[in-house]
Specification:
This protein has one domain. Helices cover 71% and strands 0% of the residues. It contains nine helices and no strands. The longest helix is centred in the C-terminal third of the chain and has 28 residues. The chain is elongated.
Length: 165
């Protein structure tokens, strides 16, 4: 499943009625979420490119990360992928080469993002959370792609007689 199809499936998951209860529970622990009736309201704010909403977006992003760390669940992964899909799609679009097939690249981008989200140092990174999420995800993606390229080059430069057998 490609990145775009994954986003569509996750968006449906985020909208599912069964997850509203999970969001309501999170509002008890994350003050920043309380002024939002649904997670779609949070996603609307996070999707707003206006600089006027920077502080609110920062607070909401940190609240989502805290909740994901407090009670990990696929729902929070889905919310974060939908929220950060533009960044993930731009990152995916920057990757060229034949080392990794397209769908595998999509999976590398997503798994790298999930790893960064899981391990994000909230206590050390107190501001510019979105920027750090982007940078850390980008570093992880390119580290993995370079490793795949090295592996492919190793296969290409192995003994030609062994390959022809």
């Amino acid at each position: 499943m490609g990145l775009h199809q994954m986003k569509c499936a996750l968006r449906a998951e985020v909208r599912a009625e069964r997850n509203q209860k999970r969001f309501e529970e999170a509002k008890k622990h994350q003050l920043e979420l309380r002024e939002h009736e649904t997670v779609l309201s949070v996603l609307a704010v996070l999707g707003d490119e206006s600089a006027l909403r920077y502080a609110e977006k920062e607070a909401l992003t940190r609240a989502l990360l805290r909740e994901h760390m407090r009670r990990p669940h696929p729902f929070w992964n889905a919310v974060l992928v939908v929220a950060f899909y533009p960044m993930l799609a731009r990152l995916r679009g920057r990757i060229f080469g034949d080392a990794v097939p397209g769908d595998d690249l999509d999976q590398i981008v997503l798994s790298s993002f999930f790893e960064v989200v899981r391990d994000f140092p909230l206590s050390q990174r107190r501001d510019r959370t979105c920027m750090y999420l982007r940078q850390m995800t980008q570093r992880e993606v390119f580290k993995r792609v370079r490793a795949e390229q090295r592996d492919l080059e190793q296969v290409r430069f192995d003994d030609p007689e062994d390959i022809s057998r």
